[in-house]
Design a protein that fits this description.
This protein has ten helices and no strands. It has about 180 residues and is mainly α. The longest helix has 25 residues, at about 70-95.
Length: about 180
């Protein structure tokens, strides 16, 4: 889907922009771009923000988004993280000492034949710190998780705005490069 004239103009202003100098209207620009751009383009931009050395580490950003999400979004995030690892990856996490408390109970559901998707009520008791540790370890086991999570967040772009101006500027700059 080619970008329209206005979208191209919006993206153009982010080409070469220092992310620390994101304009005040970046939330509005991001909304406009997210609404009118292909999800693959948006996912690539979000992935660039996750990988950037100008943003916090991936696990920290996922934790931040988890903390800001509603129960439906939180369960979707965790289903993406856990689904990318598969039962053997989750068993490895449990064997490495990750998974005390609420997280341990959830991880044990994804091992063996008990694997299932988490419902919103399943994630109520998880802390952002547990999610950060899970995301950090998931990234180490499966670096492709960044792309999977980026695709999830491209489907939930309002949530992404919680990452702040620098991350949004990086995402929009990447989209600008891709669509030249």
């Amino acid at each position: 889907m080619p970008l329209g004239f206005n979208i191209g103009n919006i993206l153009q202003q982010y080409t070469g922009l220092d992310p620390k100098q994101a304009p005040a209207n970046i939330d509005r620009d991001f909304d406009e771009i997210a609404q009118h751009s292909p999800h693959d383009d948006l996912a690539d931009g979000i992935g660039e923000a996750f990988r950037s050395d100008q943003t916090p580490p991936f696990g920290n950003m996922v934790s931040q988004l988890f903390n800001q999400g509603n129960a439906q979004e939180k369960s979707g995030m965790l289903n993406q993280l856990l689904g990318s690892l598969g039962p053997s990856g989750i068993s490895s996490l449990l064997g490495s000492g990750l998974g005390g408390g609420a997280l341990g109970g959830l991880l044990s559901r994804f091992t063996g034949h008990q694997q299932r998707e988490l419902a919103p009520e399943d994630v109520e008791n998880l802390s952002p710190d547990e999610v950060q540790e899970l995301a950090d370890r998931a990234e180490k086991q499966n670096p492709g998780i960044i792309d999977q999570m980026s695709r999830f967040y491209a489907q939930n772009p309002t949530l992404v705005k919680g990452l702040g101006g620098a991350a949004l500027a990086i995402a929009l700059a990447k989209m600008s490069q891709r669509n030249r």
